[in-house]
Structure formats: structure tokens, C-alpha cells
Amino acid sequence: xxxxxxxxxxxxxxxxxxxxxxxxxxxxxxxxxxxxxxxxxxxxxxxxxxxxxxxxxxxxxxxxxxxxxxxxxxxxxxxxxxxxxxxxxxxxxxxxxxxxxxxxxxxxxxxxxxxxxxxxxxxxxx
Length: 126
Known about the structure:
Blueprint: E1 4-8, H1 12-23, E2 28-32, H2 35-45, E3 49-52, H3 61-73, E4 82-87, H4 92-100, E5 105-108, H5 113-124
Parallel strand pairs: 1-2, 1-3, 3-4, 4-5
């Protein structure tokens, strides 16, 4: 698995759309429906990019980042996964938290497939 992302998203329907959108540009998507599963997958697979929803069943996306932070900080900066928030919440407060959490990009779920592909490619360095 050379180019893959970890999608942390509780909606199976939306996850399916993201998987298909990225499959078209030869990027594999691993999918976790909640933060705890995502944490397990992160340590097992070490994705280069994480697509993160804010509203998850067991915790917020921001809590997920806090859970991962110790592992991220132990890696050299170039090896740390880039986080792209992909959410329905386009409010200033969440955008500010994203900035404070040093996310790579903040996308709203209404983004186009082309924009999603472009942002993920950029985050992968492709």
C-alpha cells in the first residue's frame, strides 16, 4: 500500500463516496467509523494522510487528534500524517480549532470530488 489515506467517518454512505473519488486517482482508503478504531488502524498502518470528520459516535475529531498527538510528536515532522478535516461544520470556531490543531486543510463536505482529489494528492506530495 504505497498511497493510502485513513478516512475517519461515521457515515458509510459518505465514506463510500470518498473511497470511490480517491480510487479514481489510485489512492486506497482505509475506513474507520470511530475514533478508537482509527487509533488502532493508525498504529498498524501509518497512513500518510488522515481525512477526519469532526462529529464521530465515540468522540469528536478534535479528541481524535489529541489521542494521536503523542504518537505524531514522536515522529520526525516529514513522517507525521497530514490531517485534512472533512466536515459539515463550516463555522469559525471549528476552523479556529483546526488552525490551532495544525491541520493541513479544512474542507467542507460539499467540496467537489476534484478538489478533494487535488488536496489529497497535495498532502501525499504527489
